[in-house]
């Protein structure tokens, strides 16, 4: 078994080196396709985190009655925190709301100061796990006796959710189509490389090489093409993203190392995976006849 | 062991999917150690006989036995094993252009999983038989046609086959070189290997006086020992 693997690896390396032009063509195709794929993935990751940060902005704002006591308010806060849809509950007191108003509208300070007492209500600001839960949480609050009024932004939230869903689905769709194109092109290039060595395969068949001895060197060779293509792609990707990141920073995204690592893993996995798959399929058509 | 049968074809008919009938009820027995010329015009069925023997094709009717095994009943994974009982050379040599003579011959053993320590002596022996020891490190492109065919013969011989098939081995060679190749095949036969040679080379066949099996339109029309290329009066 070890001898067989050693043989296959040696033959794969010989095959890769001995057919320089074909190997170079296959590797170059692999690199171009992987750059395309990973560029798309980086863009879509950016889009996705942008959408997520937009979603996180969605807050249910509930104005509290002035008559509510401190203990009533904190028990309401606790029950909200126990709701699975809720991630964060913030409390804005009457004084804080007053100060906020003064900072935000300095030209109307005279108006508010002329009033006998603070007209601003205290409020709870609830962040949601998913904007779709807006209605649930809002209606829960509306039925609570301590809540004076819930700010109604249902329509805005609905529109936003629709736009976000369309963007997400579009991204996944484009990724699928591009992924299929990439798969198709790489598999075909590898097929060409295998076809150019039909003689070698025929000789192997004639002298009684078993299918495994014919197949595995080619599969390993596909893995070499994939590995090399992936490494070159990753090598190209880091300077490219470094170059582009100042322009991408307008997006509220951490397009830094974590994204880079994930993309590197995806590039490596799909490079080797497609290389292996392409070789396997290409050789198969020679074995089954 | 008394002379065993290497090849037995019993009532073999072969028709291809396009409707062409290549062989019609062929019976052929080749005992161990025989030297057989397979002759006949193009399209008579010579290539089909060879394809059936290496199990590249299966008979439509009848049975093909190689070394006692019915090729029609062979499991797919046993096909490579039966091919190892055969050595085959072609008109166009089928050498790998990027490999040296030695590596071309060794290739046949490497790809069937022969341990490396057994490969070198076997390759040396095969190269000695065909007289190419001195050219072992040259590439096929540096060799003459005759030397290329001898390389192919060494490759077909290196795994000690039971049956040696030569499909028009002299088709691309001039008469003098053709004679060298025939002499080589006769010597291989004397070493105990059964040889089946398909050819158009009337001169050679007639001069050598070996068994001749003549095909015409998919039928064996003559099977004669110590015979000539054409039917003699």
Blueprint of the fold:
The complex is a heterodimer of chains A (289) and B (233).
Chain A: H1 2-18, H2 20-56, E1 59-64, H3 70-81, E2 86-92, H4 94-104, H5 109-113, E3 123-128, H6 134-142, E4 147-150, H7 154-195, H8 198-206, H9 211-248, H10 257-287
Antiparallel strand pairs in A: 1-3, 1-4, 2-3
Chain B: E1 5-15, E2 21-31, E3 35-39, H1 46-53, E4 61-66, E5 69-70, H2 79-83, E6 86-90, H3 101-110, H4 116-130, H5 145-157, E7 163-167, H6 175-190, E8 194-198, H7 202-208, E9 211-216, E10 219-224
Parallel strand pairs in B: 3-8, 3-9, 6-7, 7-8
Antiparallel strand pairs in B: 1-2, 1-4, 4-5, 9-10
Q: Sheet bearing the most strands of chain A, described?
A: 4 strands, antiparallel
The total number of structural domains of chain B is 1
Q: What's the domain count of chain A?
A: 2
User: Could you estimate the helical fraction of the residues of chain B in percent?
Assistant: 25-40%
Going by CATH, what is the homologous superfamily of chain B?
A: P-loop containing nucleotide triphosphate hydrolases
Low-confidence stretches of chain B: none
Percent strand of chain A equals 5-15%
The CATH architecture name of chain B reads 3-Layer(aba) Sandwich
Structural class by sheet pairing and helices of chain B: alpha/beta
- Please state the overall shape of chain B, judged from the principal axes of the Cα atoms: globular
* Radius of gyration of chain B, whole Å: 18 Å
What proportion of the residues of chain A is helical, as a percent range?
A: over 70%
- Helix and strand sequence of chain A: HHEHEHHEHEHHHH
Alpha-carbon distance between the termini of chain A?
Answer: 27 Å
- Tell me the number of strands of chain A: 4
Low-confidence stretches of chain A: none
Mean pLDDT of chain A: 86
Largest interface: A-B, 19 and 22 residues
Order of helices and strands of chain B: EEEHEEHEHHHEHEHEE
Major beta sheet of chain B, specifics?
6 strands, mixed
